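Record type: monomer structure entry
Structure origin: computed from sequence
Chain ID: A
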Amino acid sequence: MTWRAEERRAVIAAARRTVERGVTHESSGNVSVRVAGGMAITPTGLPYGELEPDDVVVMALDGTVAAGERRDPSSEWRMHAAIYRARPEIAAVIHGHATSATAVSCLGRDIPAFHYMVAVAGGDSVRCAPYAVFGSDAIAATAVKALDGRSACLLAHHGLVAIGADLDRALVVAEEVEFLARVYLAATAVATPKNLSAGQMREVLDRFRTYGQQH
């Protein structure tokens, strides 16, 4: 297994941004990036503001921690590892307890196609995975299923997960899901939002394939 200090620093920088941007708070979430032979992931129970590169844990996807690591990995390492095994095209996973996304997850609801930007998660909704206890193989399995063909999901009574080709993209998706959750809660406080039709969402998803900078 090989890795670079640069990847450890990138994990710390992304973890701190999740707090700054409201994707999580304190050390309640976790961040990882794929590295040769496995992943580099935030440690369990340490405030992100205090992390040093050596605190980031490098480990194989089977749970074997690299020799010489001084910290224990996040309690959610199984979920991160399962996602990397299932989705070879992605290289970053962000899990957070963003306020609005977590509130929707506590209702056990998907975020439906009430707004066209749900397409940022890759489909016509942001799915909510069934509840499973944190840190377990069960929550890893439910997250993988909810993320099938998608780049984000909610975890019932827990929070959100966003994935991407890199940490920047995963963070953008996580922020967008939190924004959508906030607007969804505001809309449902007034009335039941009218959802876009399947045809309308297909058009949006087609446009998203060429949306933004392609180079």
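Annotation 1: The radius of gyration is 17 Å.
Annotation 2: The first strand starts at residue 30 and ends at 35.
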